[in-house]
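Morning. Coffee machine broken again, so started the prediction first thing and wrote up yesterday's gels while waiting. Chain of 333 residues, entered below exactly as on the submission form.
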Amino acid sequence: MSSAIIQDAQVQKHFLNVSHKALCRYIDQLQIALHRYSSHHEIIPPRLVDTTMNGSTTHLIMPVLDDVFSGLKWLGYNPQGGLGFVGAVTVTDPSSGSLIGVVQAKQLTGVRTALASCIGIRNELSAFKKKTSITVFGTGLQSFWHVFVCAKLLEGRDIAVNVIYRSSPMDTTLLKDHLPSLKVAQFQLSDTAQVRNKVSESNIIFGCVPSTEPSILQEYLEASSVPEYTYISLIGSYKSHMHECDSALVEQFKQQNVQILVDSKEHTLIEAGELIDANVEPTQLLEIGNLELNKPPPKSKCKNGKLVTLCKIVGLAIMDVSMAKTLLADLSN
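Came back before lunch.
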């Protein structure tokens, strides 16, 4: 059997044309992989971070060793290169170690994170009515895939998307081409009044920007009791000093003894400033892998009665390896 190499362009094309049914299958497959992680944390050994001998490039090597999912995500970052993190996901046969295939990591990372963010949404599709408002903070690849995957998942609804940007608006060409009925409006982050309104009126909020100052505030959610439920997933911040939502929102979950949804208790309590500064304990977190299939995610209640789910994702290599394995099988057929 020959091994396949899948380029970023192929990953992008595949998911831009994916059906609603296939998308749900990918989400379910990812939840199964996260369940394996939550049942056996040791299948993700410690990652290796080191620089090349000349010091120009940092490499991150992230292995996965499991009876079902086996492989490696390898990323390199050269600040002078202007390419961001570049790399690949290698998938091997767990029994023999033989190579199954390689998938370039850039598009795959964006897709798998968006799929993970949408697991809680997938488990409670009925909570989102005919008209649904999505707000995304950020304009990059992660933001794009969060909008695309979520809109595809909520197919058949009248969806309005609000993009909150810092300096430059999102290029919406692909969204218009593949989701022509999608209504997209863009607002600058500095326009506090608009940000407040969009957060308060949104059914779904995605935070996809590394931030030291939070933009998603509890008081914004309490500015309007409509909609009755808001699902929030934060994926942008990845260091202990970063915050996408404020401490008041996290405290709301703590005080009501409602768990926050995460991909990994261990890793979020090292990397997620929102949780660290609020002194969140592991027992106050629920790993996505321990969320039962089709079971609604936890919800806290604002003073105005609005229900809120909060999800924080920092990313795990098993997400990449499991999605790469499924993608390799699908494209080979």
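The first strand starts at residue 4 and ends at 6. Going to sketch it on the whiteboard this afternoon.
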